[in-house]
Amino acid sequence: MKNSEELREIVREKYAEIAVADASENKSCCTPACCTDGNKNSMADSYADVKGYEPIADLGLGCGLPTEFAAIKPGDTVVDLGSGAGNDCFVARAETGEKGKVIGIDMTPEMIKRARKNVATLGYMNVEFRLGELENIPVPSAEANVVVSNCVLNLVPDKQKAFEEIFRILKPGGHFSISDVVLTGPLPDSLKKVAELYAGCVSGAIPKSEYLSIIEAVGFTKVTIQKAKPIELPEEFLVSYLSEEEMNLVRTSKPGIESISVYAEKPL
Known about the structure:
Elements (H helix, E strand, L loop, with lengths): L3 H16 L57 E5 L5 H10 L4 E6 L2 H14 L4 E5 L12 E7 L8 H11 E14 L5 H4 L2 H5 L8 H11 L2 E10 L4 H4 L5 H10 L3 E9 L3
Parallel strand pairs: 1-2, 1-4, 2-3, 4-5
Antiparallel strand pairs: 5-7, 6-7
Helix pairs in contact: 1-3, 4-7
C-alpha cells in the first residue's frame, strides 16, 4: 500500500504528462482517449454549448459540469480546485463577470504553466492560477463565495483535510458544487493497483456514503446530489493493464462506479 505522498506523486507525474501533451495523446481514463462522447457511460461531459467555454483549456479531464449547478452570481469570487488548464475557471468567469474573480488551484507546475499561458492568450485580467495542494489551499480564509471542482477530490489522499480547507476558504453562506467519482459497489484490488487508473479518477474513489459523510462531518449543510450517472470502465482500456484472470474478476464483480455532482453550503 502506497502512502499519501507516493500517491500524490503518481497523480502529479501523470497530470504533468497530460499538461505538456496534446489532448489526442492523453491516456488518462478521464480524457478523450477512452471517455469520448462515443463511449457508453462516458465520464467527461461536453462543454460545447456552455457559456464561457474555451476549447484551448479543455483537456477532457472532468467527470461532470460543476459550474452548471454552482449558482455563480455576478461579482462572486470563485475558486476552482484542480483547475488544470483552466477550463472550469473560464466558464466560471463568464458567470461572475468582470467585477468578479476566479482563482484556479493546481498542484502540478506544468498545469499551472499551461493555464497561465491560456489566460494570457485570452487576455482575461480577473482569472489567476496558483500552485498548491488541496489539503493546504493557498487562499485566505472566508475568501470565496463559491468553490467548484471537477473530478479532482477523489485523487486527494486526505479527503477530510481537503473538505476542511474548502470550508475554511468559503465565506459564511458560501457554497460548493463539486463533480467527482465515487463507488457504489466493491472495487477489485486489481484495479486499485493500477496507477494509471488512480490518476484517471477511478481507484482513488471512496464509497459514496463515506464521501457524503465527510462533507457533513466537516460542518456543511444542505448536502445535495445534483446529478449522478453510472460509469463503466471501457474494456479496451482495461485489457492493456489487467491479466485475463483480473479481467474476469472485473466482469463478474461489476464494480459500482458513479459520477456525481454534489452541492453543500457553509452555514452563516
